[in-house]
Amino acid sequence: MFLNLPLVVVVLLALIGIATILLKRNLVKIIFGVTILTSSVNLFLVTLAYREGGIAPIYTLAPADVMVLPTPHALTLTNIVIGVATTALMLSFAVIIHRRYGTVNIDEIRELRE
Amino acid sequence: MVSGAPLSSGFGIWNPLLWLVVFVIGLIIAYAVWRSGFSGYRTGSGRGRPYLSGNEEPSKGDVHIRAGNMYWGFTEGIKGYYEQVIPLHTGILTDNLLWIFWVAGILLIVVMVI
Amino acid sequence: MIPEFILSNAPALLIGVPLLGAFLSPLIGRLSRDARALWVLAIITLTTLIGYLVAFLAYTKGTLIYVFGAATPALSIPPDSGGIPIRIILTLDALSALMVIMTVTVGFSVIVYSLSSDSRRSGLEAYYTLFLLLIASVLGMFATGDLFNFFVFLEISSLAAAGLVAYKVEKGRAVEAGLKFLMVSAIGGVFFLLAIGILYGQYNALNIAMLAGMIQWTPLDKLALVLIIAALAAKCGSVPMHFWTPDAYSMAPAAVTAMLVVVSQASLYGLFRFCFTLYGLALTYGVIGWALIVLGVLSMVVGVTMAIPQKDIKRLMAYHSVSQTGYMLLGVGVGLAVLGDQALLGSFGITAMEGGIFHILNNALYKGLLFLTAGAIILRIGTSDMNRMGGLGHNMKWTMILFIIGALAIAGIPPFNGFASKFLIYESVFAFNPVLSIIAMVVSILTLASFVKVFHSVFMGPQLPEYADVSEAPGSMLIGMAILSGLVIITGLFPEFFVQHLIAPAAHALADPSGYLAAVLGGA
User: Fold this and answer.
1) pLDDT value at position A2?
2) In chain B, which end has fewer C-beta atoms inside a 10 angstrom radius, N or C?
3) Cα–Cα distance for residue pair C441/B7, rounded to 1 Å
4) Residues of the domain holding C487
């Protein structure tokens, strides 16, 4: 059970993220939901890298042990940075929308529609 | 350098240069027909003015058919289709994401089952 | 003649030059506006030349690879790695080369156009930085041979494009469009990264060629493919995930919209690359092929029927962009559906793929041209509402002629290039399934109908008194549009030349991934 606990948490976080995105009506909360979804994928990547009883993948003065895979760590770091930029841009868009429309309720931010 | 060879699908050929030759021949024939017509017309002499039962001609802006009024017959004709599809374009932000999840879900079921 | 340094490092320079230009342009903008305009023009000219060079090398020498950080650029498998290509590798085969040609051509015309169309806006240093960054990231998407690298460039292009879409602000509506675009792109990116994680967890490889050799059709691989298709199809604007397309395309500045068309084609390229080259030998052709065909037919029909009642000129053109994407999905989907059957593939499958790929090139050209003409009209008139326009043919003759060329091309009227690619698609899809071809032809007629509507309501009619002193579009805008329309005419008059030398190698490279794999895995 414990071996799969990270993956269970990944699925849980993803479901919470998707539920927040689809059910909430406040734009800021939807942006939170996107961040939660991104975190769940980051956790998934880190989980893929883990090897049971492994040590950090650093060669200097390393004991002769199984090392954790470093490539998904690089992927996760890159994705964290991308997530920061995306969240920052989305939040700045939300600020401008609030300034111009006066609301952050997505049911009312519907100027562009058929 | 650039060949004038025809484009061939497996079932037919298309040669645009040949089309152009035929088009130019058609234009020449049209010009010949035009030249053999009435040559005494002078523009602006009042011969081409519309007769609207004695009423005066409306202003230029009112005569021009605007974009929203064109193809009224077409949009009326398939009104049933439009009444289903246009409300789907709500403009709400999370409806985009809902459709992405739907498509991923349906595609997953189709791919897993078949 | 060309220095050896440039010849051997050309793929890296392809991405590096616009990237450098993007980050140096605010600094040079400090000197003066004209210095920045000259710098941007110089960078895009250099990028265009390098793009043509890279494409020429890829077409004549076979698949081009470039390894970052190796002793020589072609050393894809280090001698002590056990046969695994461990570095980030740029792989350019014929399809990538075609996309690079399309991107740099459209990018050059659009930058020339935007030198005068956006010259009176504020915040221009950010505009040109984001624009060059967008071009660099799209070129990176085409050039890369590595899954995660593709994801990074996909996200860069999403962020840059979202910033550009929201550039005009326009009482908050452009920002709303930018937010919708960014949200769809972010969710698409999350799906894509999840698929990368699943594939990495199974096969411990991120290089496309390496994965293609190892991949099987396990349930997890099916899940990864479904996530990739959903993410990339959402990013390219196929129905039913197209709702962001009219908003983003109509609210962006006109030059940016023409580039956004290329960005959508980039995700379409990714879709084809992953379906054909990555999964090519493992997936069930019928199911995935028909999935692409269904997406394509839906896009064609919904796109064009939603375009007819529109009153905003750029929104109408954006729906047509959705519709044209359907043609590409249809053509290449038919090719994928018969990929397993050699006889059918030779009879009409390759032709369908050629039609779809030719349509990608043609669509970027004429759709870019149409959006640029719409931008010229909006610049001169001040509104994009077609109900208020009329009689502009008296004042803007050149714009009208260029619009006619673009409208006839998109409707598939001979002798322009739209007809050439639609001819290939119609004939080959008819052999596959006649109903699909008939739907495609009806959609083409409706496309012509809606562009006749635009032409009449904008250009025809008497000269309205409020537009009596509207002048022609500025010079550099006309030059940008003329470049694209010249290419539309040339590809229309000599389609066999382009199909034989550019498109057929790309279609064959897609259908048979062995050349791609051999170039990466066989390098030493």
Assistant:
1) 66
2) N
3) 19
4) 284-493
pLDDT at C238 over 70: yes
| Residue C69, phi-psi category: left (phi > 0), alpha (psi -120 to 50), beta (remainder) | left
Query: Domain for residue C522, yes or no?
Result: no
Residue B68: its pLDDT value, please? 82
Q: Which residue has the higher pLDDT, C76 or C61?
A: C61
| Residue C87 and residue C78 in contact, taking contact as beta carbons nearer than 8 Å | yes
Distance (Å) from the alpha carbon of B101 to chain A's nearest alpha carbon: 9
User: Which residue of chain B is at minimal alpha-carbon distance from C302?
Assistant: B85
Give the span between the Cα atoms of C441 and C363, in whole angstroms: 17
Query: Which residues lie across from C92 on neighbouring strands?
Result: C64
Q: Residue C66 pairs with which residues in a beta bridge? A: C90
Which residues in C lie closer than 8 A to residue A71 (C-beta atoms)?
Answer: 200, 206
Cα distance between residue C338 and residue C330, in whole Å: 13
Look up residue C519 and give its two tokens: 């170039």
Residue C93 included in any domain: no
Please indicate whether, in this complex, the C-beta atoms of C287 and B89 are within 8 angstroms of each other: no
Report residue C170 CA to chain centroid gap: 26
Half-sphere exposure at residue C107, Cβ-oriented, CA atoms within 13 angstroms: 33
Report the distance separating Cα B42 and Cα B44, nearest Å: 6
Which tokens sit at B30? Answer: 């049209």
Taking Cα atoms as reference points, which of C325, C411, C364 lies closest to residue C110? C364
Q: Model pTM?
A: 0.94
Q: What is the mean pLDDT of chain A?
A: 91
Residue A82 has phi, psi (to 5 degrees) of -60, -40
Backbone angles phi, psi at B14, to 5 degrees: -140, 120
- Go through the domains of chain A in sequence order and give each one's CATH number: 2-101 (1.10.287.3510)
> Which neighbouring-strand residues pair with C67?
C89
Counting one residue from A and one from C, how many pairs have CB atoms under 8 Å apart?
88
**pLDDT tens, residue by residue, C175-224:** 999 999 999 999 999 999 999 999 999 998 899 988 988 888 899 999 99
Tell me the domain boundaries of chain B: 1-36, 73-113
Contacts of A107 in chain C (CB under 8 A): none
Cis peptide before B58 (omega within 30 of 0): no
Reported confidence tier of residue C403, pLDDT bands at 50, 70, 90: very high
Query: DSSP assignment of C292-348, as one string?
Result: HHHHHHHHHHHHHHHHTT--BHHHHHHHHHHHHHHHHHHHHHHHHHTTT-HHHIIII
Chain B segment 51-90 residues within 8 A of C by beta carbon are 60-61, 63-68, 70-71, 74-75, 78, 81-82, 85-86, 88-89
Both structure tokens of C374: 């719409």
How many structural domains does chain C have? 1
Strands (E), B1-114: 7-8, 13-14
Whether residue C83 lies inside any domain: the answer is no
Q: Which chain A positions have a beta carbon within 8 Å of B86's beta carbon?
A: 114
Residues in C touching B103 (Cβ below 8 Å) = 230, 233-234, 240-241
A97-114 pLDDT tens trace: 999 999 989 988 888 776
Residue C23 within any structural domain of the chain: no
Which token pair is C2?
């060309």
Average pLDDT score over residue span A19-37: 94
Q: Which of A18, A107, A114 sits opposite B92 (nearest CB)?
A: A107
* Banded model confidence at residue C2, pLDDT cuts 50, 70, 90: confident
Interface test with A, best of C190, C250, C251, C305 (most A CBs within 10 A): C190
**Is C207 strand, coil or helix?**
strand
